[in-house]
Design goal:
Length: 137
Amino acid sequence: MIYEEVQQSQIGVFITASSTVEKTKRAYDTARLSFDNVHININSIHQHIIDQNEEYCKENDITYIVSESNGYPAKGKNATYDWFKEFEYEWLIPVDGDDYLSPDAWRVLSTLINQNRPDVGVLIFGKAVRWESGEML
């Protein structure tokens, strides 16, 4: 089946930042190498982490929110998914704040989307996997 090619404007990268601002910067900077729409959800039980990440976002004109944390990753990730629904993107790329994307992330992910149109895709250590079959792409 042939699909209409995915466009940058259809993809939102959402970083859930719960660690140091240095890690958040790395996650953001690597995501911006490949994607136009990158947002940060600051989610931590530590006020100094929130303050440092919020200052970074303000200084760099990054769209961000501060969501309530209970100290477990699920609450922050759920807040990220809820926030994503407020935008008009068709595709969500969630990124943990202590992770980063490779410089060719756009090529890999757009190829995955354009060729397969999966409902869910998973990136594991830089390899794209089709959710339905577990097949490596």
